[in-house]
Amino acid sequence: MSTDTRPVPEPAPEIVEQWRAEGVGLVELLARAQRSVGGLAGLRLGPTPTVLVTDPAAVQHVLGRHPDRYVKRSHRARMLVGDGVLSATGDPWKRQRRLLQSQFTGTGMRRYERRIAAAAHRTAERWEGYLRTGETFDVAEEMRRFALDTVWRALTGLPLDDRTDHELRSVERVVAAMPKLPTDAADARDAVAADLARIDAVARAAIEAARAADPAEEPGVLRVLIDAGEQYPEYTDTLIRDELVTLLVAGHETTATTLTWLFLLLDRHPEARTADPQALVNETLRLYPSAWLLPRHAVEDDVIAGHRIAAGTDVLVCPYLTHRDPALWPDPERFDPGRFAAGPDRPGRLGAYIPFGLGARACLGTQFALRETTALLELLLPMGELVFHSKPEGAAYSITVRPDGPTPAMLRRHPERP
Which of 76, 83, 103, 272 could form a disulfide with 108 if both were Cys (CB 3.0 to 4.6 A apart)? Predict the structure, then answer.
């Protein structure tokens, strides 16, 4: 390593202690570190050295250029997703990624257009009923059901039924519980054992049904996994279960959260309702990226922008803070879908906008997620306006950034329309 490198700048220890004494949470602690020393900031969060990365060039270095130097370790969701592609590493991850990649790009995506459309129309029919009756409903719950229905159709070829929907609420409960679970893996599993058992039962039933289905039927992703099990010994029923649950978690939690935030943002900014649906989604993802924090671990010594990164350092890439950096985004707290039209406000720097990650481990389902969100908005936005009876006051930070409370609302016709 070059001798003219320097350590990563850190906030003064006494300042960090003062922040801790104030009781600030992790997000605010990271934000203060960024504001204090910049887009590459050293932190003392525990016994392991930690570096916060929010500068676009450094983000690209870690995620895009050198994923072999900055690797995933044990994923916090492993007790839920097992050895699925989200938590797998090394050669197993490469094989799993390769198998699934073709399902969510190009020709693979076209296969799911009808299923996405069917789930969107099913939700629109419910909303037409709410519009007629004036019934109050929870927006987050509606978005959860839509996103789960969509991914369930993609996985199994079948619409989501009420019983499966009820049992898969366990996924949301486990995800919401993760930040508060014991650090010991066995104790954490014990704390959510009943919900994990329900999820396992749903997965087993889906795998059995897919095996028994007519091979001539248009297959879902689950059929692809089962076929892989006939060719590759590593695709045991356990791994198929893990991939199924991984896709369920990643495929509905993030989409449902994005859509919920979008409707809350439109309530605060009604002038944005006429924006292009894709721009609405993009700007929502800027403020509330699908993965707000991407932890990595440095497995060898490295240098980023002249700063030494020692092997063994924990590296936290934080899209949430990169997307709110005023040096990259003018007036970053403002909701402005116009940023994603051609113009000077749209950042051209790679690494400045990473709602689905970057590089080899970027989200597999990016195109799927963007298509399903816009498909739904194209149906719902012309229908009417939401009137919220109450709104969450803040955000809860887990795997995703979720509104921290219920979202009861009613749907009314646009004032200018009959």
Answer: 103
Amino acid at site 51: V
Classified as helix, coil or strand, 54 is coil
Lookup result for tokens 């005023």: 326
User: H or E stretch including 149?
Assistant: helix 139-156
DSSP strands (E only) in 215-370: 294-298, 302-304, 307-309, 314-317
Q: What is the tens place of the pLDDT at every residue in 173-203?
A: 998 888 788 888 888 889 999 999 999 999 9
199 lies in some domain: yes
- Asked if the structure places residue 89 within a domain, the reply is yes
Q: What is the DSSP string of 294-352?
A: EEEEE-S-EEETTEEE-TT-EEEE-HHHHTT-TTTSSSTTS--GGGGSSSTTS--STTS
SS3 122: helix
Exposed (0-12), middle (13-18) or buried (19+): which is 265, by Cβ within 10 Å? middle
- Tokens encoding 291: 């993965």
Residue 354 and residue 188: Cα distance in Å, rounded?
30
For the chain, helix (H) and strand (E) counts, in that order, are 17, 13
Q: Give the chain's radius of gyration (CA, Å).
A: 22
Query: What is the distance between the alpha carbons of residues 317 and 308, in angstroms, rounded to a whole number?
Result: 16
Q: In this predicted structure, what is the pLDDT of residue 418?
A: 45
- Is residue 108's pLDDT more than 90? no
Check: CB of residue 363 under 8 Å from CB of residue 290: yes
Cα–Cα distance, 6 to 11 (Å, whole number): 15
Q: Give the separation between CA 195 and CA 407, rounded to whole angstroms.
A: 24
CATH number for 131: 1.10.630.10
Helix ranges restricted to H, 323-365: none
Structural domain containing residue 138? 6-412
How far does Cα 196 stand from its chain's mean position?
20
